[in-house]
Amino acid sequence: MAIIFLLGPSVWKAGKKKPTYSPMEMRRQIAELFRETGHKVILMEDEPDITGEDLPNKFYRLLRDKAVTDVVVYWPPRAEMQTTHAEFVLWGACPNISQLPPIQLLHHASIFSVKGEVFSINNREDRNRYLTSILARQGVCLVEWESDEDLKEQVCLLSAEL
Questions:
Q1: DSSP, residue by residue, 18-58
Q2: CA angle (133, 59, 41) in 5-degree steps
Q3: Domain that holds residue 99
């Protein structure tokens, strides 16, 4: 079974219409779906901090010490993505990026456009386009969803593949 590092936003953007649950609550639901099929899931927020450790070092420690086999990123529309962007930058700055586990990107259909083997990030307001080279270099697997029900179905399918 896989050891999944589940990344993604925790809160919605200020001033945007919000569903009744937060992105963090949805990540916890996604984690539970993976666990139901026997996978171990790591949420950075649930892992204890080490005294004197900053967040980048915690990120790298969890990747290394937890023997992560797969990284799954939940990317919904209207979410505050600043911290997730920082995690992508940390990922791209890793000196041994070629040895890192693959990224499965659970993205809402409105986030990306895929034409052949080229993908682009549609939402330009958050400067998401700067992430394209990091994601392309890592060979990200895009898993698209359109509704909460579709998201859960895609997670179950992904879980069976991992």
A1: --SS-HHHHHHHHHHHHHHTT-EEE-GGGSPP-TT--HHHH
A2: 100
A3: 3-13+20-161
Q: Which residue carries 């990026």 as its tokens?
A: 97
Structure tokens at 134: 């990091």
* Number of domains composing the chain: 1
For residues 141 and 72, is the Cβ–Cβ distance under 8 A? no
Span 18-38, pLDDT tens digits: 677 899 999 999 999 999 999
List the end-to-end C-alpha distance of the chain, in Å, as a whole number: 7
Q: Which ranges of 37-147 would DSSP assign to H, the alpha helix?
A: 55-65, 82-93, 132-138
Taking CA atoms, 26 is separated from 65, 79, 93, 118, in Å, by 25, 12, 28, 28
CATH label of the domain that carries residue 31: 3.40.50.360
Structure token pair of residue 150: 């579709």
pLDDT in tens, 68-98: 999 999 999 888 888 887 888 787 777 776 6
